Amino acid sequence: MLTALTTDLYQLTMAQVYYRRGLHERPAQFDHFFRSYPDYGSHQAGYCVAAGLEAFVGFVADTAFTDDDIAYLSSLKGRSGSALFAADFLRWLRSMSFTDGITIEAVLEGRVVHANAPMTVVTGPLATAQILETALLNQINYATLIATKASRMVDSARGRPVLEFGLRRGATGAGDVGARAALIGGAEFTSNVSAARDAEVEPKGTHAHSLVQAMMALGEGERGAFQAYADVYPDDCVLLVDTIDTLESGVPNAIEVFEDLRSKGHEPVGIRLDSGDLAYLAVRSARMLDDAGFEGASIVLSGGLDEMSIWQILTQIDREAARYGLDPVALVDRLTFGVGTSLITSEGDPALDGVYKLVAISDGSAWQPAIKISENPMKVPNPGRKALHRLYDNRGIATADVMSLEGEVADDPMVLRHPIEATLLRSVSPDSLSGREVLLEVVVDEGDVRAEFPGVDELRKRRERDLDRLDEGVRRLVNPHIYHVSLSERLWDLKQALVASPS
Amino acid sequence: MLTALTTDLYQLTMAQVYYRRGLHERPAQFDHFFRSYPDYGSHQAGYCVAAGLEAFVGFVADTAFTDDDIAYLSSLKGRSGSALFAADFLRWLRSMSFTDGITIEAVLEGRVVHANAPMTVVTGPLATAQILETALLNQINYATLIATKASRMVDSARGRPVLEFGLRRGATGAGDVGARAALIGGAEFTSNVSAARDAEVEPKGTHAHSLVQAMMALGEGERGAFQAYADVYPDDCVLLVDTIDTLESGVPNAIEVFEDLRSKGHEPVGIRLDSGDLAYLAVRSARMLDDAGFEGASIVLSGGLDEMSIWQILTQIDREAARYGLDPVALVDRLTFGVGTSLITSEGDPALDGVYKLVAISDGSAWQPAIKISENPMKVPNPGRKALHRLYDNRGIATADVMSLEGEVADDPMVLRHPIEATLLRSVSPDSLSGREVLLEVVVDEGDVRAEFPGVDELRKRRERDLDRLDEGVRRLVNPHIYHVSLSERLWDLKQALVASPS
Prior knowledge:
Two copies of one chain form a homodimer. With 503 residues, the first copy, chain A, is an alpha/beta fold.
């Protein structure tokens, strides 16, 4: 989908500078991480779910500058009218492969990831690793953003299925990536046929208002529309009941059709509500369905849903169901949530602020840590080649992600430093831990793709396992507890030394 | 980019119902329109800029269900285990073309468009036109959203160039579409090489912090990094000056390199500021550049910009420049604005609420208007086959977009009805108008692509012409005046009759 020219021009102008200086194949390391969790305004994420790695590794393995690409680049002119890119540099660009000497370590897709800890580490020739920046960020930032949003919705939905159907409102061409990310984040289905095929899940969907409108305009009414649908899908009959009036027309007409189906030996599946007070209408519709003998009929809710409105709907049902003689738990067990716009766009915070920063470069014989000084201390990257571990406490709950220097042996007790606040540190004794897990795995080793990329089902399980080991306070939808991402004492010392004397 | 399976499953399940009922080739009309202008929270759009039509028409002309697509669809099972789609329906799907009998009228790309007036009208066989919904919305909603956001930024930037560089933060695979839409909306350049090639504009970009970091880690410092860049691009030298400290290090180092360039007969281009108080730093940097004899050096501002921060920066420069002995107008004339995240994601409102509604269907001999009743009156579509005109007042300013019945002759005076509020109407005499323009043009005529799709330059001119004819109150960034989108008296009467008796 992406090509070698799916990049920012400055990657190529910088690469030419490195080439001209003979630095283009100098080993360098870039860390990819996001600086802050998505903040949706009235609610905030306390964790993210990694996604997009398989696509990025596929890009690295399969993409190259083509003759056409090179011809285009050679046509670009600077202000003086001379060629922007010289012929020798373009020959190198044509000859290079994105896998040449490239090693990629990453936290695997589906895993919970945290702000300011590396998600992806790219090591290799300076120019190549630099050019990879845009493709990496374009592929991992968005997928992680959407997997995270989906994870919150699924968490909010108390285990009931979440159905992704944002294709019409997502960015053009991003629908399949967005749907796959939603599935990784825990969505159970998607309406997007292409994405469902690729992810090997069933696509889902029934009918829209237009079916009812068409039959109404042709004189068959809502009842006729429902009947036409039921005739074709007698065992998969979900009817959209809000075209005219949900309780006065839609549900009664649906019940008539359901009775007809049952008389013919078929069991109707349920109804969909797409407008109005969804909690109230779910309760009232459930009551009507129950009274007609369709206690098993499911109720799909859709229309502007996100994690907060799902939470609100379930809370309202908890309170309101009993008034109509319904068990709220049983009612919730009949629900499915269809989410569109807010999921595919990560409404409230439509971009993950993932960045890709040079952290080390070889001087020809040894790695030199690199740093960027910023007026904003949180924007100072953590320098050098690092290890990343997740510590689990004696309850088996993740308590910190810790960056340390490559090859560093953990102190006893370990001192965990806040990345920038000198006074914030804690001491952790090995006795208080149940595990210390290496988070970064080698997925490309000097150009060889090492990782196997499992299907969506396995990625969903990874997310579930990590969520089970996440503090409830970090999981909560609003004002989550801030998970500790820490530096080892030695990494802290290196960072301070570089900040004091950057060049 | 999109395939025939880039669709929601329900389009296909509905199509099969129509097929089974013999209605699949029944003429139908769907209107595409957005219900509300983007609302970014603290600021709101008063108009949108149409984009995405060329891509959609390309999809219609070039896409079909392939054998692989049909094989996949034939593999889908319902709950009973039998095939979801029957063989005869799939044969029809394989044999149909998206152009068969399809006519598309649309407001052309680059034009100003308004809420609740049709942007795109698709007429043709019911099943075909239904299936086109998802592709249309996916392609036109996003492009229009981004063209609109770009237009606001360009308007805010007082004619100074806006450079799009959001590829890393946009949705995966949507970067080229987003960049093209930004260009249609008035952005002058993009950093996205692929998008620039396709749109036939120059890609732009210089270097990132990583160049400075790499050279610092190798002992050459910021000055060495700047020198390395200037050596390769002596006539295109824009230096990013905020890696260490903008005023203490970056600008002085840049000036040294600029002096060196000038001594060798080259004229430096300028600097880029990417962090900190951009207005203050622009003023201080301009003062330093002027004092060093680089009055012509341009200043690129970037880092979290949107239309509001551009406005704020220019306002602050207006006030602050004189304190440093600078003419604010001359300083603003040196600026370029680089915008990333907020443009490519339409931050604040990441989706256009464009919908595609059945408005008419043939009963076999005559068109029947279709309506959907909704609890929200603004969600009741305007029924039937309609004309759409833009009225210009005697100043040449657009005063209303008016929907009327097909073939209706305008009354004198015309009564313009608010779409839902019975008490809101105005009377317009032909004397008070300078023009009445047909907005919808036939771009596909019974399957023949009629439209020529001009390049981005021409689309930008269309936008400029329309903005020149837009009321300043409608253009303003915050709390814009609501442009009138009206119904003719006869269309109003039809809508009332259908609402009263929908089926």
